[in-house]
TrEMBL record:
Signal peptide, first to last residue: none
Assigned keywords, A-Z: Heme, Iron, Membrane, Metal-binding, Monooxygenase, Oxidoreductase, Transmembrane, Transmembrane helix
Needed cofactors: heme
Subcellular location: Membrane
Protein name as it appears in the record: Cytochrome P450
PROSITE patterns: CYTOCHROME_P450
MF annotations from Gene Ontology: heme binding; iron ion binding; monooxygenase activity; oxidoreductase activity, acting on paired donors, with incorporation or reduction of molecular oxygen
Binding site for heme: C425
One cellular component term from this protein's GO annotations in UniProt: membrane
Family the UniProt entry places it in: Belongs to the cytochrome P450 family.
Pfam family of the protein (one): p450
Classification via SUPFAM superfamilies: Cytochrome P450
Amino acid sequence: MYQTIILGSILLVSFYILKRFRKPKLNMPPLVRYKIPIIGHTYSYMFNSEEFIKQCKNEYGEIFSIYIWGEVRTIVGKEYSQEVLTRDDAFSFGKAFVETIPLDLLLKHAGVTNVPKLLKDYIFCKLNFYSERMQKCLHSAIQKYINTNVNDGPKVFNNMYLLMTKIISTPVSNIFIGEVRFISDLLTLQKIPPLLNFYYPGYLNRILVSSGLYNPAIKHRNILIKYIKNQVCNRLQGKAKYGDSWKRPDDLLQDIIEQENIDLNNVNYSSLADKIFAFLFASIHTTSTGCANALMDLASRPQYMQELYEEQLEVHKEADENGVLPFEALDNMKKLDSFIRETLRLTGHILALDHSVLKDYTFSNGLQLPKNHTVKIYVDDIYQDESLQGPNPKSFEPFRHIDKNAPASKISKNFVLFGAGKHACPGRYFAISEIKFFMHNIILKYNIRTESGKIEGRKLYGPTAYPSPSGIIIEKRKAK
Ligand code: HEM
């Protein structure tokens, strides 16, 4: 036993040393000085990232490298961030993402489905069509998770993010609400330090998942498979009963079944479940984070409530007798849209949008990176820059985007939350519609404020921001 451990350790250390000395002769970005081997900058990166990265940039310039978790990572400031985001021949977001959350192992039955294409072809082009369902689902989820609790008076809600995953997953999945835990379970992998990355990118997480020590997909897959089996059975019965007059269900499940010519009498359920998970994963965490942050930003600044309320009252005049708005009504929520863009702009990450280098790359300033290296975008540098954001870039000014031709879904050099270029998030219109319909509902029905009575900022874990778990008091508006 001991011999194996010692041998294993020697092998790992030798591999590590070999890797460090096998450096390619490239004009690499400057490496920030550090004192303690192996630890390098990990401590400052985890516990003081905002100041640490700012100082590094001041001293080393737009592109520099730091040594964290036993690996060299390159940080790219605002001047060169577009090069990383738009050169998809040289940089990949997806590859870097899989190094943190090994989706290829977690959803190994999904096969070769092109998720972006599937979503573009079947969901995003029909946003107008899905709008009524989205609103009805949001409405019932808000009733279920918020309203029942506040009927008796003001109520404190802690950890809005978790509540939001439940609310947001209702329209997103429209059906399998029980699956939301999967998303937060998966994100646990994001918080595991990448300790063995020097050996192989994402190695520790891959071991945890493939050994079964931590594989959140397994238990959730079984629940989802049970649900899908039920659906397939209903659809088979419906087809048999009604023949050509059978009304096909309008959902992603049916789209996948038809697009991939799946024989309903011979379904590979694991594969179908994994494909649906990929869709849920892309949409629920991101949109829930946006909603939780928007809610906290409004609760932190109740002085903007009245103005937003008046706008939503006006917009609501367009609703039908069931309270459903036409899709076009979203365009008239100008103040709310600007508020949401401001929330998203100030999401709070210091570094984000990790990309893997696909081939040796030379930046326009001559600095070079080798294939398989990982870069992080210094997004705080973009969002705190006056020339890009306008005056007082650090302060939350909810109406700063009005009349600037900058709706919340619009990507630009000064707004990279959804990425940029060819691979910019195709789900952003879907997400923004959902956040707007959600906030419309909340603003019309409730008054909100923070439990502390103060502005609650985001929670930083290293350079990554998460919604504040602090309490929000939600109180039903008095009927006039
Ligand atoms: C506030 C919500 C959201 C945020 C902040 C967000 C953010 C992102 C980012 C940063 C990327 C990578 C872009 C790049 O490579 O440059 C991305 C890609 C993607 N997102 Fe989103 N997203 C959100 C909502 C959604 C939703 C609701 C869906 C699906 C319904 C979705 C589906 C996708 C897909 C399929 C890709 C891959 C695109 C490709 O590789 O071509 N996202 N998203």
